Amino acid sequence: MAAFMISEKYAGLKYQSIIQALEQDILGGKYLFGQRIPTQNDLTDHFGVSRPTIEKALEHLEDKGLIQRRKGSGTFVSIDVNKERTKLKFAIIAPRPSQDYDFESNFVQLIISNFSAQAGKRDFNLLIDTAIADNQRELLSHSLKAAAELTEAGINGVFILPVDFTGEDTAVNSALVQSFTNAGVQVVLLDRDICQMPHRSRYDVVGINNRRAGFVVTDHLISNGAKNLLFVSCPLVSNTVKERIEGFKMALEHHDMNFDNRIIYDYDSQNAVCRRGVIKAIKASQGPAGIVCLNDQTAGVVMNEVVKSGFNVPAEVRIAGFDDLPMSSLLLCPLTTIRQPVAAMVQTAIDIMCNRLKDPDMPARDIFVAEQLVVRLSCGSRLSEGK
Predict the structure, then answer these.
(1) Domain boundaries, the chain
(2) What is the torsional sign of CA 306, 311, 317, 322?
(3) Within 10 Å of residue 316's Cβ, how many Cβ atoms?
(4) Which CATH superfamily is domain 88-202 in?
(5) By CB distance 3.0 to 4.6 Å, which of 27, 120, 129, 276 could disulfide with 146?
(6) How many whole angstroms separate alpha carbon 143 and alpha carbon 133?
(7) Fold designation for 1-86
(8) For residue 100, what pLDDT band results from cuts at 50, 70 and 90?
(9) pTM above 0.85, yes or no
């Protein structure tokens, strides 16, 4: 058995890669119904990972009904592939440059785990590819290889979480969807389109209304006493973030507050000039400053920097983000945020895909799933209530 090594750099994705490989072996007929698969020791050597990682992958496969583990006997295939061939077969692919992986890893894994849960509930087969590479050329190569393999596996449709628009990443998105389209595989996009505004692709897109979400969270900060507002973004901005900034701008105008491009900060926690710029703006604020961050991960970094600089959150600085990641309620000051309803998003995307399979010639649609404002301490709402 040839070794298949997974880079230590991407430890969070090891078990998912193993799940994908074993699932494809089982569904591809390499291991038949009732057959025993290699032992945990064999799999540990084969994939070059630890036993706990193999254990986690096998637990996931057992939860999906693909294997059954019998104490003292081994692990056996519990699915009859011949019966499974009549099921719909979908795939989800989320290509990411390695430098962006930490930035979006939690959101990507939430999407994947919800698809896996729906595969069991709605009785379809699911293949997963989380392509990660250190440069654009490698990412494009890996993505196209994955598209070819998924197409060869006979998938009916694919859900794509496009790469953010950073330099050549647009070429990855375009080449990926074109590869599936040329093969006759239906495509549904998650969270964002593959085209920059004002252009629109030919594919269905399922996500939230980011402009409305940007308005809602900014309006909430202003209503809770924030006087000088900043939007903390990143140097390379996607459609998603642009829409959130537009909502931010609309909320300022709604409250007769001036908008100036100088209050949009491209934040880099490793760049001292960026950090000083945000702190300087807070010091100049007449009353509590309000900071809207492009996502929760950025909000956590900004909050740490603000507290280190001697400011109190939320008394002096009120902060909010987007996504409602699990870490958001565990920050120094629990974070007010916009919850992306991932479960509803995934369910809707599957419904849209089934409709698309029935009528491939339907016009492309933008489907918005309702977001939710999650109010925690960082916005100063309790301070406002106490007045």
Answers:
(1) 1-86, 88-202, 210-340+372-385
(2) positive
(3) 16
(4) Response regulator (3.40.50.2300)
(5) 129
(6) 10
(7) Arc Repressor Mutant, subunit A (1.10.10)
(8) low
(9) no
Residue-level pLDDT at 385: 59
pLDDT at 4 over 60: no
User: Which CATH code of 3.10.20.30, 3.40.50.1100, 3.40.50.2300, 3.30.70.360 fits the domain covering 210-340+372-385?
Assistant: 3.40.50.2300
